[in-house]
Amino acid sequence: MIFHHILVARILITVATLGWSAIPVRADINATHATNPAWTPHARFHVVWQVSSYAGFGMIALALIWWPGAFEIDRLYFAALMGAVIYASFFVALAAMPLYDGATHDKNGYLPFNAPMPVIARKWDANITAFSVMTVILAAGAISTAL
């Protein structure tokens, strides 16, 4: 039983880690972000820096999750904490958008899509949707670790 819940936790935290480390490489190192001619060169520099930093930290988190040895529960919590910092920072940036005139999308980037359940809103933002789902997966992984 102990092995089972640790494996579930590892898988869930891995999925959440890939959500903040590997997926942004695919989503942001392209014409919508890093090579977007409408962005200032300094903004493009920052997105490449952020994405490459997250990819590097993601490799560390994956090693913490899957490397055999002592302190496996502690390492899972640490990897989950790394993800929690990144996901929480996204929501801080989201809440602070009025302070810096931010936006969740760009007209030549990933546009909002029709909501599958238009109860909350008719359109859903891709970033908010993905980061919300990944935050739930990360929480489930952290909870699974504690079982």
The strands making up the biggest β-sheet line up spatially as: 1-2
Order of helices and strands: HHHHHEEH
Radius of gyration: 17 Å
Q: List low-confidence stretches.
A: none
Which geometry do the CA atoms define? globular
Please describe the biggest sheet, giving its number of strands, its sense, and whether it closes into a barrel: 2 strands, antiparallel
Strand content: under 5%
- Tell me, rounded to a whole number, the average pLDDT: 91
User: What is the tally of beta strands?
Assistant: 2
State the secondary-structure class: mainly alpha
> How helical, in percent, are the residues?
55-70%
Count of DSSP-assigned helices: 6
The N- to C-terminal Cα distance equals 10 Å
Question: How is the secondary structure organized here?
Answer:
Layout: H1 2-21, H2 23-28, H3 41-66, H4 72-95, H5 97-100, E1 113-114, E2 123-124, H6 126-146
Helix pairs in contact: 1-3, 1-4, 1-6, 3-4, 4-6
Written overview of the protein:
The chain is mostly helical. The protein contains six helices and two strands; from the N terminus they run H-H-H-H-H-E-E-H. The protein has a two-stranded antiparallel ribbon. Strand 1 and strand 2 form a beta hairpin. Helix 1 runs antiparallel to helix 3, helix 1 packs parallel to helix 4 and helix 1 packs antiparallel against helix 6. It is globular, with a radius of gyration of 17 Å.
